[in-house]
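*** Protein under study ***
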Amino acid sequence: MNNISRRSFVALAGSGLAGSALSPAVAGETLPQAQASKVSPPQQAHPARYASSFRIAPPAGADAQIFLSPAALTMPQPRIAFTHRDLRLFSLRGSTSFRGRTVTGLKAMIYPPLNLSDTSPAPPLGLTESGFFNLSFREPETGTLIQDIQDEFADPLYLNQKARSANQMGPSYTEGESSSILLTQDAQWWPHCYVRTGVFHRRISGKTISFRVECRVFLSSTADEIYEEIDLRNDADAPLSLILVPDQPRPSDGKHEPRVPLFQRQEGNYTLEVASDIGPAGQEGWLVDLPAKGCRAVRIALLLKPKSAPATPAFHIPDLGGRIKKTVAAHTDELQWASAQLPQIHTANAMLDEFYKRSILSVLFCRRVRENFCTSPFYDLGFGRGAAVAWDTSFSSRLIAQLDPEGLIGMVKAFLRSGGALNSTYLGWNGEARGWYAQSPFALMQIVCDYLRLTRDAQVLDAKIGASTLLEYLKQAGTEFLKNYTHASGLIDIGEGTGKMLEIRTDGYEHMIAAINALAVDYFRQLGQWCTERNDADGRRYEFAASRIELALNRELWDEEAGWYGNLYPDGRRTLVLSCHAFDMLGTTAVPKARKLRMAERMRDGEFLAPYGMYSISLSDRTHWDMEDCDWGGGGQYVGQTLKIAGLLYACGESNRAWELLSRSTQWAERFPYFPQTIYGDELKLQEHQIDWPLQISAGAGAQTIIGGVFGIEPGADGSLLVNPNYNATLGDAKLKYYRLRGHVFDVHLGAHGFSVFKDGQLSVTHAYGQAVKMVV
């Protein structure tokens, strides 16, 4: 990986605002000199270093002819930045990750409320990582146990030992004997399937044991079941028999004898059971006979069942092949559904096109449909354990409103029903909510406004959700701010403690924060409008609050010399924190246009721009910048915020800066099949302490920015559609097709000299760039 250290980056790009030149935004030019150390220019497709000659045939369903096709989204494992613990498959019901250096191994299995993460202790000697499931293979003639686990430190190739069991079945090492470990070869990730291959080839006790394994993992979308479809090929000139042994973790109480199969294991109120279509299980597993040079396909299922459920007779399920076919069809149908609901883009910028698809896929992977959830569908935060956060959801709410408007408003109702607009920061799968967070009401307001602009369903504001209407819940949060969190100056003061705001590990971003107050202005302004439309006397009170906060914000917090808004403490102390959170102000009515442009100047090399997106704290802020903390502390980015800021830059007329930020972010598609919560600014890597957060619903902000910024499509508050594209020559002749809005379909075509808009297949207008076209819907 080609990385740029912070020190080198600052040296190249300059450490301050005055000394740095703006990055070139002209199409075809490379990124600025800070990226000269071979960071891939965003207009290029994947570098040759990620090419591979994998010998894996596409799994069933891979050739579906749809926009979000598995073939377009597949990624070879060496190209993927995730480790096997982060690399996952998702279904509407749950997710699983994979055990490293195995062909059949699974790791974390999350099917709320069941959450099997990697917490079990290491086996004796501490030489091999713990895991949750894999198969072992017994060759009955010689008694050889071939285990599907490799570990560099326990591998007999290094230690000259024989590992009769380097896994859950109980480690036993004998010096001077040879290896009995299945070796991994190739691996390829698909949105609906993970494929791995391995080989075993040794002569043991006078017999050549030589066979190959290809394992394809699928997750059911209708049941809590994981399937492994396994092709076994005997490469030897003599027949071969293998017993497939289920190798699950031993109980920690030591009551289960090691080196015996474990068809069932207990996890709290659940049972994890292994079954197969091979036939009734024998004492050790399932016997498979392979002729010389012959092949056989078998299937294994891992069933997550209530503890009270009866065991599968003989651990034999004859129709597993049929279940896998239904699973593949369900995944294909989901991709087909999303492909039909959302617009397609086709440009000459291959990286942008792939980034757009993976942005959508990231949101789709957060969608859960489970009968035990408080609402269905449930849009998960991303880490899969059955929790949602209003702020994270709001980054992608316009995309979700187009994909699934009923599902989106269902999430809003679940948040409000559980804890109101201020006390439902986290919404659990079971409807339990907790956490006061200053950003929550603004996020819920954003989600509701996005829903209304796409649907025009104003009646939802007056619909009862428990004891109150949606509008009444939003008013309650507004009243709480005005009553308990307003300073004498008129500004909103959220107090101390970063738990109420951002996770910055230094002081200074507390009390009267500019971004919170700017968002409050729009919040009260919108409440005032809705109340006035309903002849609600509270309308004037909210409008007055908006005007008072706006006046105080621009009088008390603007720092003219810095071109930035600072923070005010009750004792009069002022702090200046160059946080990316302040860029939220670019999308508000509270900040004058001239000041927005001053703030936007800091989106440059040596400040916020990074080789792979942006830093969450400006490099020039030497007090608050933190190399390790991605989200909001400096060294990288919370993915949704970067992509949202690019959209806000487009909206306030800074198209060159917006493209520079967006095009650097598109490089994420080089190494991530879906987008995690954080990515470092200097390398395509997930933040270490967020290894269990490899997926983020906010990543949908990338697709939103491409639709609304690059192609300039924005639904108006009055029900119209505005089209005002921002062209870049790397796009070539670009098309956005099938943008659906209230029964109509719009297409936008971009060329070097202008753009055309089609409504329901008919050309409506051709126009030069620089002026918005208003379409009647």
Remarks:
- Residues 80-322 form a domain with the Beta-galactosidase; Chain A, domain 5 fold (CATH 2.70.98).
